[in-house]
Every structure is written in C-alpha cells, then in structure tokens.
Amino acid sequence: MVEFVGSVITPQHVEVVDVASGQRHLGSGITQQLDDCRLERWGLCLECGTPDDPVHGSEVTWLLPDLGLRLTRYRPRSRHARPDGSLLTAARIERDARSWITTDLLLGLEVPEHGPSRIVNSEKFAAAVSDGMLTLEEADLAVCTVHRIYEEIRLHRDVEQWLAYRGVFTAW
Asked: What is the Cα 56 distance to its own chain's centre?
C-alpha cells in the first residue's frame, strides 16, 4: 500500500503525469507516452492512442482539479462512428510545477451523447469503502462530487453546455 496525504490507498488508484516529459505513469507500473499533454487555465489535457482497442482510436482525458474530476472521452477509429459520450470520475488532483498526481475515488458518472446520465462503478466504490481502501472522507467527497455534477449537467442539458458554464472550453 502507498501512504498518500494521510490516507491509505492501493497503488493502482494513483496516476502521475509528468508534464515536462509528456508521460503518464499508471499505478499498475505502466508508463504511457502521451500524444498531447496540454495545460490550460482550467486543467490538464492528456491524449494518447489506444492501439489495442478495435473501436477507439484514442483517449482524451481532462484533469479538472477545481471540480475534483477526471473527464474522459474516447475518439472512435471510424470517422463515421458515433461518439460514446463522456465518463466523469471523482478524483483528488494535486499538482506542482512538474507533475500532476491523480487519485481515482472510483465513483463516476457516465454521460451519453443522447439520453440520461447514470452513476457508474458504485459496486467497486462500495467495496473500496467497505475494505478501507477509501476513507470515509474520500467516500463523502466522491459522492458529493458525483451528485453535484449530475445535477449541474441535468440543469445544463449536456456536458458541453455545463463545461462552458464552468468556464471550461474544450476542443474535442
């Protein structure tokens, strides 16, 4: 186990992005060279190819520290395919001049291009809380974050309008 800001978590839930080298170090020990690692005033954009995925050509992730979120979208391989929508995951994000450290709080929100949003990973989240992998403080942060974002997106009708309302302007 890894000690991180006063709580005990497993290494697979921590990811470090080295902004200078454009590399993402996953908790599993894998290091990915990013195709894009771009800093904006609202967060950090990461893009990497997904060569082993037959459907998706790349993954685009925004780390949004002020919102406590990781927002991920997959770009389809075929230009004729419909986008999958967005996955928003509660996260604790810390940063310094060289790196961003993200701790996945395991609870997320799936927002399809059309249709209602839904909370995802609740079973994995509950097991992590029950097993002590997440503290009650982290669990509370995750639940409050996901429910707040769910309500805000519902009020703004889609992710793009909600992001614009929050001052986040992305080029997907």
From this structure: 17
CA distance 49 to 103: 22
Q: Please, are residues 42 and 136 in contact by the beta-carbon 8 Å criterion?
A: no
- Give the 3-state secondary structure of the chain: CEEECCEEECHHHEEEEECCCCEEECCCCCEEECCEEEEECCEEEEEEECCCCCCEEEEEEEEECCCCEEEEEEEECCCCCCCCCEEEEEEEEEECCCEEEEEEEEEEEEECCCCCCEEECHHHHHHHHHCCCCCHHHHHHHHHHHHHHHHHHHHHCCHHHHHHHCCCCCCC
CA 8 and chain centroid, separation:
20
Q: pTM here?
A: 0.85
Give the tens place of pLDDT for each residue, 98-120.
999 999 999 999 998 878 889 99
Cα–Cα distance for residue pair 29/158, rounded to 1 Å: 35
